[in-house]
Amino acid sequence: MKMVSALLLLSALLGTPAVPSWRPSCYKRALKDHDCHNIPDGTEDLRQIDDGLQDHFWEGKGCEVICYCNWNELLCCPKDIFFGPKISFVIPCNSQ
């Protein structure tokens, strides 16, 4: 009980929340038998964002998660985390 009280007091003094945030975070996905240059169209549920943004893909049906391909793995993040809230709204969304 003393430990919990000490942690709450310490977190209040440092200005950080005592409970971790449930904000969506980034994650990595391995590309099985593929690399960034041979992802077949319509597979892995990925769509290239734009010709000007090589190796950047939308994941899923919407335009909320962006993946960056680095050789044979994807780093996927919510668009606001990946580009920041001031830039993410100008990235073209092709949800088809």
TrEMBL record:
<dbReference type="Pfam" id="PF15224">
    <property type="entry name" value="SCRG1"/>
</dbReference>
<feature type="signal peptide">
    <location>
        <begin position="1"/>
        <end position="18"/>
    </location>
</feature>
<dbReference type="InterPro" id="IPR028063">
    <property type="entry name" value="SCRG1"/>
</dbReference>
<dbReference type="GO" id="GO:0005794">
    <property type="term" value="C:Golgi apparatus"/>
</dbReference>
<dbReference type="GO" id="GO:0044306">
    <property type="term" value="C:neuron projection terminus"/>
</dbReference>
<protein>
    <submittedName>
        <fullName>Scrapie-responsive protein 1</fullName>
    </submittedName>
</protein>
<keyword id="KW-0732">Signal</keyword>
